[in-house]
Design a protein that fits this description.
Helix content is about 80%, strand content about 0%. With about 450 residues, it is an all-alpha fold. It folds into two domains: about 1-185 and about 250-460, MFS general substrate transporter like domains (Growth Hormone, Chain: A), CATH 1.20.1250.20; about 195-250.
């Protein structure tokens, strides 16, 4: 029994080493996004596509990759995704234009989705129910370590070597993670069967079109192109549901959503990550353009959020194994809402301390929420569908991220004139106007994670 437990933790360590790359990459990009925009003389609306296209491609394919793991094996899907992510990272670092960088980020998302879709399934399959919360908490700590390392590392690299080298830091970490995972992860599968190709195509078209229309709406309104894209997404979504009800081996087992715990915990995850990406997308612009801080200082300040997550996530996982998942999830989401409310009251001139405690408070709430909520999702799914459940949870997380960037951008464009948003350096008279848009966006994020607390409260025990 002890040998089996040690083997499970070796698998967890391998998953954590590989999975840390996605958070490092995401947090680095968020911090250096203003620097990249300045380097290419690009407006925020164009620079916004650097994180957006990455999240769009991941979100549109996670369900497919989760089912692919059930059929082909979680290990094979994970290793292929990790290798592709490394190759795309190198291409991002060599991008000659901002448009080529956006294309390579899309490729990075295609590979990253494979890497992100199956870890929850691997962990749930390797650990007994009494240790699942702790294992997921440790995994969340690893993800948070990546988020904590990323801002400082990205700010330092951008200041000393240039932003291009920030993408290349993935290579040595990823290679070590690939070699270790290849050695220790067992060949696990869920429910065998055929791959639901038609379901994958309709899901990709639906999610891609819907999320893209959400991104276009703030700047273009409901014009012909946006309306057609929205309509295509709705039609494709209806087609996806029709296919899944009739497929012999569906990509998404719709019956899982009859379990209210599974359904509401996934909704809570989406709302919490929406609020999280409002915070991580817009706060660097506040620090860089309003407070005029250098990239290395911006990175150091942003580290306070994931550092707090890393400190609390293992404890919250351990706690959920003993008292259940509902109470810590409600308290965590409510804490995030209060933190964003306080972020909306940041002044035009603020000290590092004023920003850090607000970000750290959001991190404490996130760490308290995520591990219990993930355990609720995975614990309510039957073992043959762990890949589908893992892919669904990862999809909710990434769709929430996309909606967070889109929501933050939408509120900002609605409240701040476009000529001010296009400036890399703001005049003293323009900073309060820019800040008013940030305040509105932070309040929108607070509302979203407040709803996450409510949905966590009403779900069954």
């Amino acid at each position: 029994m002890k040998e089996k437990s040690e083997g499970s933790y070796a698998v967890l360590a391998a998953i954590m080493l590989g999975s840390i790359m996605g958070p490092i990459d995401a947090s680095i990009v968020n911090v250096i996004l203003p620097t990249i925009a300045d380097s290419f003389a690009a407006p925020i609306s164009t620079a916004q596509w650097i994180p957006m296209v990455y999240l769009l491609t991941i979100s549109s394919l996670l369900l497919f990759y989760g089912r692919l793991g059930d059929v082909l094996g979680y290990k094979r899907v994970y290793l292929l995704g990790l290798a592709g992510f490394l190759a795309a990272s190198a291409l991002c670092g060599l991008s000659p234009t901002i448009r080529s960088l956006i294309v390579f980020r899309a490729l990075q998302g295609l590979a990253g989705g494979m890497m992100m879709a199956v870890p929850y399934a691997v962990i749930t399959a390797c650990f007994p129910a009494g240790q699942r919360g702790r294992a997921l908490g440790l995994n969340a700590m690893g993800i948070s370590a990546g988020l904590a390392i990323g801002p400082s590392l990205g700010g330092f690299i951008a200041s000393v070597l240039g932003w291009r080298f920030a993408f290349l830091v993935n290579l040595p970490i990823g290679l070590a993670g690939w070699l270790w995972a290849r050695r220790v992860i067992p060949d696990l599968r869920g429910q065998p069967g055929k791959i639901d190709v038609l379901g994958a195509v309709t899901a990709f078209l639906s999610l891609g079109a819907l999320l893209l229309s959400v991104n276009w709406f703030p700047r273009r309104g409901l014009d012909l192109a946006t309306g057609m894209l929205l309509g295509a997404g709705v039609v494709a979504g209806g087609g996806f549901l029709w296919v899944e009800r009739r497929a012999a081996s569906p990509m998404l087992e719709l019956g899982l959503f009859r379990n209210l715990t599974f359904a509401l915990a996934n909704v809570s995850a989406l709302l919490n990550f929406l609020s999280q990406y409002v915070l991580v997308f817009l706060t660097p612009f506040y620090l860089h353009r309003v407070l005029r801080w250098a990239p290395n200082r911006v990175g150091l300040i942003m580290t306070s959020f994931p550092s707090a997550v890393m400190a609390i996530a293992p404890f919250s996982g351990w706690l959920s194994d003993r008292i259940g998942t509902r109470v810590p999830a409600v308290l965590g989401a409510a804490t995030c809402a209060f933190s964003l409310f306080r972020m909306s009251h940041l002044p035009p001139v603020a000290s590092a301390k004023e920003v850090v405690w607000r970000l750290a408070l959001f991190g404490l709430g996130t760490g308290l929420f995520q591990s219990p909520n993930n355990s609720a999702v995975m614990g309510s799914a039957p073992r043959p569908h762990l890949g589908i459940a893992s892919g669904t949870l990862a999809t909710m997380r990434n769709v929430g991220m996309v909606l967070g960037v889109a929501t933050g951008g939408a509120v900002l464009y609605a409240l701040v004139p476009s000529d001010i948003l296009g400036k890399a350096a703001l005049e003293a008279s323009e900073a309060p106007v820019f800040l008013s848009g940030l305040r509105g966006a932070f309040m929108a994020g607070a509302l979203a994670t407040g709803l996450a607390a409510a949905s966590s409260l009403v779900r069954p025990r």
